[in-house]
Structure formats: structure tokens, C-alpha cells
Amino acid sequence: MTAETQHPRGEMSLRTVAMPADTNPHGDIFGGWIMSLMDVAAGVAAGTHAQGRVATAAVSNLSFLRPVKVGDVVCVYTHVVKTGRSSITIGVETWVLRQNRGARERVTFAEFVMVAVDDAGRPRPLA
Q1: Is pLDDT at 59 greater than 80 in this prediction?
Q2: DSSP string of the chain?
Q3: Is domain 3-116 classified as CATH 3.40.50.880?
Q4: Tens digit of pLDDT for each residue in 18-34?
């Protein structure tokens, strides 16, 4: 494990507990639920940076490294990778505490490209 994967990068943008309602028919935590948490966290981070509304434009390099289990505390961390005229690329990592104890484990990572938008949903320059 590299130094990069031993500790979360960035700041915690979201924290919740994986519940039975978040499982697929086989009882595993649904990957789409994790992706939605990552999207919310990226939106929070980008919206703060853009000082306003943002929309998800793209997701890349999404990797699921380990399963998430019912009862795990799910923590999503974000950091700004780069900015453009109206876009912000946010690095997103999901870490879990198994049953709220022990060492954190990184379970996913991705990059989300968010675009600052005006009230009509058109791209706008970053604030």
C-alpha cells in the first residue's frame, strides 16, 4: 500500500452508515448507492469552490476496490484536482470504518468533472 492509499486525501465531505435498504438483491451494498454518495460529495465540494450551483459533467477512473458492508461507516473525501473556466475536477475517495471500528479502508476512488451553471443551467465562469 502506498502512502497515497494509507490516508484519505482532501477533506471529508460526507459521512453516513450503510444500511440494509442500500443493498442489492444479494445483500451486498449496491455500487450505485456508493456512486451517488460520491456524486453528492463532489457536488458539495465543487459548489463551495464555485460559490454556486454546479452540475455533474463526467465521471472517470471510477474503481471499486473493496466491498462495503451493512453497518460500515462510509466517509467520502474530496479534493480539487484542477479548475478550468467553468469546470472543476474533483478527486473523490470513499473510505469505510468496518462496524465503526478499526482502521479505515479505501473502497473506491474516481474523478468527477463538475461545471458551474447559472439559474438556467448554462455553464458560467467560476466565481
Answers
A1: yes
A2: --GGGTS--SEEEEEEE--GGGB-TTSSBPHHHHHHHHHHHHHHHHHHHHTS-EEEEEEEEEEE-S---TTPEEEEEEEEEEE-SSEEEEEEEEEEEGGG-S--EEEEEEEEEEEEB-TTS-B----
A3: no
A4: 999 999 888 889 999 99
